[in-house]
Specification:
heterodimer; A: about 210 residues; mainly alpha; about 0% strand; B: about 240 residues; about 80% helix; flat
Chain lengths: ~210, ~240
Amino acid sequence: MNITITVLLASAVLSFIIAFLAGFGRIAKNPIIRKFTGFYIEVFRGTSLIVQLFWFYYALPGLFGIDLGTDFWAAVVAISMNYGAYMSEVVRGSILSVSDGQKEAATALNMSRFQRMRLVILPQAVRMMLPEFGNYLIQMLKATSLVSLIGLTDILYHGDIFRSTNLSLAPTVYLLILVFYFILALPLIWLTRWAEKQSSKGVATE
Amino acid sequence: MTWSWNYVWESLPLIFEGMWITLGLTIGCFAFAMLFGFVWTFLRRIPWTPVQKLVGFLLEFIRSTPPLVQLFFLFYAWPMVPYVGVTLDPISCAILGLGGHFSTYISEIYRSGIESVDKGQWEAAKALNLSTGKKWTKIILPQAIPPTIPMLGNYLIIMFKEVPLTATIGVTGMLHAAESFGAQTFAYVEPLTLVALFFLAMSYPSAVLIRKLEKKFNRRFDKKNPTGTNNNMDKGVAVNG
């Protein structure tokens, strides 16, 4: 239980950071940065999360001598790299979909590139990102169940152990786990709905 | 431990064999999800509030709990359920579990497709006094299906990436092959990297293909609706641009 929530929170924070970095990298002026982030996104979106998790856990320490320290960090890094790649596309899409007139108006007001992004474009783009981010948080919650496969003691892991000692209780155990996940997901679902409402408030319609 | 080409050549045939199982299972799960998605869509359209509430809750429940737990439930717990419990082999368990999980998403696609049909079309069908069967087969579905094709394609790719989950219940797909090779030789690096490369090699071209499809459908959409009021469609174009 604790592990599930800790993994979720840690990977949520890390993946937000990655998403913004990669999202900005993808629309950067420098073609090298652009190509590099594009490559990162394609690799992590093109392969399966469970494969990445195993790769980070088994292959990374052997191949490059990089040891992420604990299983916990291997799990968090794998999940956030994966979801960071997906969410960076949300960041990019939202920034690009801010209407051109806004960018032109900001340029006309003689704002610097940085000011333009910070004061005009981002506040509008973030509003569009919120509901999508909520959806990805729910996905991430589901993905945390995978960490039991590399030996982290989350809900599923405990459930599995309990099941193997009390075979006849298996249906109850797994139903309880499912209900647990659902209870954890509920606040996220509500949060997403709330964000959807907030983001549609006070937006001028054409 | 460093990269060793020996292990690569040794594990390659195993993983290649696993690939066919992974691919076949992807198609099987997807077919099941597409069929079962219809059931959800149909259940949702029953105009009786308790049924709608129940179906809505079920959809939400299945969608927000991890597919891995659902697979474990079907595989380990289902045989223990009194009266209705059946022991399933890993493959059918995978098809039921993953297909069932994704059918909830796919029914959402069907719904959006049906809702995207212009209201006037429904009214026109009614005005012409068409039977229910004719209304659906001649008017609604021909217009509802084309826009859903790129979205379904996206889910096919997502499904392909979820199928390795079934390695945990003993389906001998790519990941399972890599794991058992690693367990025998202590060489996890090479087979796992190969699996990742296989995934990339298959999902990247299909993603490109779907982008093309999407553009094609968007263009048709634009012709009908030159002002382009649908924001999501615009976003799609911007992302793919």
